[in-house]
Each structure stands twice: as C-alpha cells, then as structure tokens.
Amino acid sequence: MQPLALRQAIRQALADPNLQTALDGNALRRVQGRAKAIDTLPDWEERRQRARAVRAQVIESLPEYLNAFIQKAQANGIQVHRAANNAEAVSLITRLALQARPENAAGPTVIAKSKSMVSEEIELNPALEAAGLKVVETDLGEYIIQLRGERPSHLIAPAVHLRRGQVGQLFHEKLGIPYTEDIPTLTNTARKMLRQVFLSAQVGLSGVNFGVAESGSLCIVTNEGNGRMVTTLPKVHIALMGMERLVPTLDDLALMLSLLPRSATGQKMSVYTQLINRPLAGQTRHLVIVDNGRERLRQSTLREALYCIRCGACLNACPVFRELGGHSYRGQNGAVAPYPGPIGSVISPGLLGENYSPLAQASTLCGACQEACPVKIDLPALLLRIRAGEIPAAERPAAPGQGLPAPVTLGLKLFTRVAEHPTLYAAAQTSAAALSAPLPSFLPAPAFTGWGFSKDFPKPDPRPFRQRWRELEKAPVSQAAASTPNPPAVSAPAKAAPAPAQVERFIAEVTALGGEVLRLRPQEIQAALLRLLQREGIQSLQTWSSLPGVDLNALRAAGLRLSETHADDLQAGLSGALAAVAETGTLLIAEAPGQPLTASLVPPIHLALLPISRLKASLEEALALPEVKTSAALALISGPSRTADIEMALTIGVHGPGKIILLLIEA
What we know:
By secondary structure, this protein is of the alpha/beta class. It is 40% helix and 15% strand. Helix 25 links the parallel strand 12 (540-543) and strand 13.
C-alpha cells in the first residue's frame, strides 16, 4: 500500500489554501519568466542537445574527468577530500570546521553557509550543530526555513510554500521585529541580521554548481551575494560538491550558464557567477567531493538522472508538484525527501534507497518535466523504472509497482495477462465497453483505487484496435487528401532584426538589469567620478590600489575616506573590470594583488570602470581570457543583488550592492 505519511501529506497540501496560493503564484511566474528568457536564445533546442551530450559524456567517463579535475584543483592549492557516503562527508566537514576555530575564541565556531542541496541530502546541519558548531543559513529562503526548522520546499526556492504573512509572523516571533508583511522590510531585516555573520564567521560553507575539469575551477551561481560572501570573507572556505557536477571545459561551462539561469529563474545570467581557482591571500580552501550512491546510480538504469544541473524547471512544470509542494514528497518512514518533484522522485530513491520509491507514483507521466529540462532528461522513463522496482540503492531487489495500492497492483497483473493474448484482449475490451454504462445514482463510486470519484476513466471503445484499423484501411480517401500527397510546407520564421551595435546592446542590457552607465572619455574620468560621488552622497569607499584615469590622492584631498580593505561602514566600492559581456550586460572582475573582490561585494554601492576595448560579444569569449584560469577567483556580475524568495516579489539589494554604476571609458 502507498505509505500513509505520503497520502496524509498530499491531502493536507490540497486542503491548505495558503500553500495553494503560494504554489500557484510561483509556478505561473517561473514558467512565464522561463519562456521569456528562452525566447532570447534562437538556438535554445540546439543548446539543449549539446548540453545533454556534454553531461552524457561526463557521466560516461566520470572517473577520468574526476581525476583530471582533482589534479588541477590540488595544483591550484585547493585541498580536496573524497567522501564515499554521507557519514564520511559529515565527519570530514565537522573536523575541518572544528580545526578552523581560533585559539582562545569565545563562543562556538560560526559557519556562514550558502545554499547546498548536497548538505540537505547528507543531513549536514544537525550533525554540525550536534558537534557544538553554529550553522547559519544565509540565503534568504534558506534562512527563513532554518528559523522554521524545515527542509527546503524547492530546489531553488526553499520557502516557496510560504506567504508574506507567514514570514512576517516568523520574523516577529524569532527576530523580535514588529509584525509586517512588507517584503522589502522583511528582506532588509534578514540582511541586517546576517551582516555580522558574514563579517565574523570563521568558516564559509558553500555548494558547487559546476567543477571545470580542464582548470580545476569551482563555479557557484547565486543572486543575493551570500555565496560570494561565504567564499570570500572567512579565513576557511569549505565547498561541498556531488561528484557528478563536472563539465570538461570552460566552453562547456559557458554553455551550461546559458541554460541554467534561464531555466531556474528566467534570467539570462544570475547576478553573481563565481569562478574559484585558488585560495585568496591568507585563506584556506577545502573541497569535499561526495559519492553517497552516485557511482552506484551511474552503473544503473537510472544513470541519466545524474545529468541534472539542479535548475528546478521540472518542478515548476510538474502539475503534481504545483499542487503539492516539496514537503508532500515523503518517504515510507514519513521523512521529507531531500530532493522533491520529478527529478527528486528519481534521485531520492536512486541515492537513498527504497524508502523514497513511492515518490515515483506522484506523477502523471505527462512529459512536461522532460520538455522543461534544459538537458532533456527522460524523466517519465526514469519514473517508470522506479515504479518497476529498479532502485540501485535498495538493500534487496524491489518489487515492481513500489507504493501502489494492492488492488491496483492486482489489476495491473490481470491486465498484463490479458494484454499478452490478442484474442482475449479483444474480448475483454468488448465486454468492458458493454459494462461501462453509467452506474445508477444510488450506487456508490468504486472508491477503492480512486478511479470514479477523483479521476475520469474513459469509456472503452467496443471495437478492438485491429478492427478499427481494418475499417480505416477500407475507408475511402477524400479528394482533398488525395490531391495533397504532402502536407503544406511551413514557412520559415522571419529573420530577427539585425542586432544593435555591441556597445549599445551592452548598455541596454546593463540598464535593463537596473544598472546605470556613464559614457566618458579618458580625460573626463576624474571630474566625472567626483561629481558622481557628490551626487550619491558618498564620503567613504573601498578602492583598488590603482585605477587608470583615477587619482586616488586627489580623492583623499577632496575629503574622501579611502580604504583598500573592506569595512561595513564604507559607503561604496570602486573597482575596475577585466572584461564585460555584451549579450548579458555582465561584468567580469578578477581578484589580483591590490584588486580585492570585496570592493564589488561588501559596500552597498558598486562603481566600476570599464574600457570599451574590453567588451566581449559573448560569455564564451570572456571565459577564453587567460586571467580566467590564472586568477585566484573571479566574479561575473549581472546587475545589483536581488532576491525573490518571498512570494516571488523582486527585491533589490540583499547581501551585495543594491546599486551598480558603470563608468564606460571610450577608446
């Protein structure tokens, strides 16, 4: 029988009006945003096919790619650790965090943590807290559900199941603020509470979106800025990565980055895409690579599930998830699955065993998930394999039809016997049609399986298929059909208008993201910068040690307080840029001596200088620059920091700058 916990969770979800309203709003906006973002890529389907091929290649040759990646990462100075299972991963991270504690430190070691689904999978937070460590989730959605003591309800939107009133009541009770439903106020409250966590944490803990085999780079994609904070400010950074999350080259990474944000959040690029090659000065970086059933899954018929890039698009497209939310996906023991939705219904049992096998029944097999998947995973086929009992993590061979009610299982067995004999099947079909007349109103519906009172069962056709086929063959062909042997050709879509000039497109993209662009000649930089600082009321800023066209001494003489190190009271950060990407309005900033990444991260306003000569047409061109492999770390910045974790309401300025002003220098 289907587990009682799963059935109860489903009924509770369907009866919860707040949940239904929250899920409806999330699905509608995310699906619409995804469709709009996809329209900006005319070759979307071609990219999906290429991305699928890349992921298939990686999973096929995973040991070789993993070895190459580890060798590069270690050569770069990252300390790499392998964990065969969840216990090893938890033990490793606990030990590394405890070692990071300064001598004579008062209070517990603080871990500032950004979003990581692998940490949910291995149940990391409770283990760290049991060891006396203080773990603080810093993503807004994760922070909210941590305060509630819940698991994430969505792969990328952890608090999607909540409405603003629930968050307001939570912050009133837990943080002591007056009750409010104003989302900017709620977001700013979280920013203030987490600011000191970022600045004082001894350890930063993050996930990893992609590892790049050719360079040993870690790629982390976020919008709020917390991912950059936890990997940049603490003296110790621990990254947690599933062993399958690799791409062969930076070109392949650029391909994935064109698909992931569009599928996940409807953006051309997430606000912050980090590339981490080495530790920063005075910092230690650890990478914990987790197996926890992935190699076993790779060797099974479910290996395609490892292609997943964790965008969450299948959840937003799934009609079941859109009614239930993530917390309804429960195992036989009542535990909420770490991965919900269509992909979670494969990965959770695939990695963690038959406890989660009933999740595969929570699907209509309509194919919407496969259609939405940016790497074209055949999720309906994988769900059918789970239903058939193909669970590599099971301790014993699983019976087909895991989680189905006994009457349904019996009925399917009888149907199989009948369907194997054409004559018997035809007779059964004719009989079923004769017996399918509506029941008298005084008779109860057949409620033992659900058919008849919650689903519509189509009336069987009294004519077997072969009979209908023979009748179709004998049917006369209409004159219109006979005179049109081939369908009319579909006219090709009109060609898009020629793209605007590269610079104009870049300015348009930056402006659309909420940034401001000032075009200047080299001799105008100093005066324009002084006017800008005066206009914004800026009297203190973090700067790079030198910037072309900027006289830092003159700025000091004008009464400005300058610092090359970050501080929470500095009003702005002034940096240069290695390059920029015209098609997405993205700045590429590289860490180097005298060029700290914190200038573009910690202050509330970011001012950046970019020579037009460094503008690149595409992300592929930008990632081909030699500094991408040689710099300790890089940040790809696309607009001000933002979040939509509360009711999908966009709020600008979370943990990173809320304003970006670009000084674009003419050649």
